[in-house]
Amino acid sequence: MTQPATFRRVPGPRPRLPEPLRTALSLAASGVPVLPLRRGKVPFGNCRSCAGNACGGRPNMKHPGPCRCSGVCHAWAAATTEPAVIASPAWAAAWRQAVCVGYHPGGAGLTVVDLDDADAIAWARTALPATRTVATTRGEHWIYQGVMQSVNAVRPGVDIKSLMSYARWLGPGAGVTTALPAIVRALAVKVPSPARRAPQTVTVPLRGQGGACPHRTPTYLDRGIAMAVQRITDADSAVHATVYRAFLAVLSTHGRCGCLTDTHVTRLFTAAQAKGESVRHCTDAWTNARTTLGL
């Protein structure tokens, strides 16, 4: 007797994942928190429940939103390494519309120095230690190991992306990722802006201030300069801010009677430049300190 035919479902090829989603899953497997970016290379908008941060709370690092929303909400805070979240139905529509993958540098223990044009790149090559670099549409990303606050426009064409920020994934880049240097951290320190552009030379615009002179002997002034030089030399972070504060301390004590000379200022500038400051940064800091003290 002939046996009846039996039919088995033959598995066909699995649906091909969108390219951004495949890239995101690969990055997440290596510990990089990811999120989809839509046209304009920006995050997707919040869902109705999260619109205007109506859900309340502060975005955190572990969940895709302060309310544990299953959607791609709260921009950088949506970034995650959980494959179940990344490939979930709640994220599926976003991946179909995504034009690229974003990631949270701070969540991966990284800082991205975003150089937006050729001038910014030229500055970085002379001012910053070499590290892994990734080409962008108009410039480069310099990627360092370590985290810090994110700040835009720290200088012309330069943004810093790390904590509470996102960057576009553009590939692994070239070179070896090195430790986040103090000079990059110092870029995030805000100091007062000068009223006008400072000159590029070392000058001492303090002659004839007419204030009471506190210098009974030259030793008092020399000791003050030496202390300021040592303070700058010992700085291992926030160098730019340390230089400004050292200049401010010198000027507040010694800047009103006209006893400071070019030699004294040169000692201060030399110490600052040994820590990576340019002559322009030194002169700007000096002018800022004078403006703050009304000199």
Secondary-structure blueprint of this entry?
Layout: H1 19-29, E1 34-38, E2 42-43, H2 83-86, H3 89-97, E3 100-103, E4 110-115, H4 118-127, E5 132-135, E6 140-145, E7 151-155, E8 158-161, E9 167-168, E10 178-179, H5 182-187, H6 218-234, H7 239-254, H8 262-274, H9 279-293
Parallel strand pairs: 6-10
Antiparallel strand pairs: 1-2, 1-3, 3-9, 4-6, 4-8, 5-6, 7-8
Helix pairs in contact: 6-7, 6-8, 7-9
Describe this structure in words.
The chain is α+β, with helices and mostly antiparallel strands. Helices cover 34% and strands 14% of the residues. The chain contains nine helices and ten strands. The strands form two sheets. Strands 4, 5, 6, 7, 8 and 10 form a six-stranded mixed β-sheet that branches. A hairpin with a 2-residue loop joins strand 7 and strand 8. The protein is elongated and about 80 Å long. The termini are far apart.
